[in-house]
Amino acid sequence: MLVLKGIKAPMLFLLVSCAVATYALSHNPRHEKFLRQHSDFPQTAVAGQDYCGTMMLRRGLTRPCKATNSFVHVPRTQLKDICGWAGTHYRRALRLSRAELPVTTCSLQGSSRGRCRYWTHRGKRHILIGCDPSGWPVHFEESNFIPS
């Protein structure tokens, strides 16, 4: 059997396979977009009162102004868990979180001179997400927004 610096070829193959699988899972463009648009943990501290205006601009959601967007303030692993044990099947390919989670929802009030103005609503609620076949969150269903 071929030996490379003390590591047998099958062991080397296993290590390379694990590295490739880890890279593929961590580079899921749809999941990365979901995190950019909807994950904010720990919650970003914003000077003044304009959390939504600041976050929507920072996350690239203001060209054009996005009508509604929610930021969930839990660790990314907790969002992923909704695709499994921490969520239940809702309808279609959506999963409903079992727990109420801290969420900030930004709703467009209007825009002037190219600047988007948002109404901010903070609270806890169950969220609906879509997951890809590998169990990664890739879609946030905004229609589930019910102020508490």
UniProtKB/TrEMBL annotation:
Gene Ontology biological-process entries: defense response to Gram-positive bacterium
UniProt-annotated location(s): Secreted
Pfam families with a match to the protein in the record: RnaseA
SMART domains (UniProt xref): RNAse_Pc (SM00092)
Record keywords, A-Z: Disulfide bond, Secreted, Signal
Leader sequence segment: 1-26
Segments passing through the bilayer: none
Molecular-function GO terms, alphabetical: nucleic acid binding; RNA nuclease activity
GO CC annotation, single: extracellular region
Start and end residues of each Ribonuclease A-domain domain: 27-144
Family as reported in the entry's similarity comment: Belongs to the pancreatic ribonuclease family.
Protein name as annotated: Ribonuclease A-domain domain-containing protein
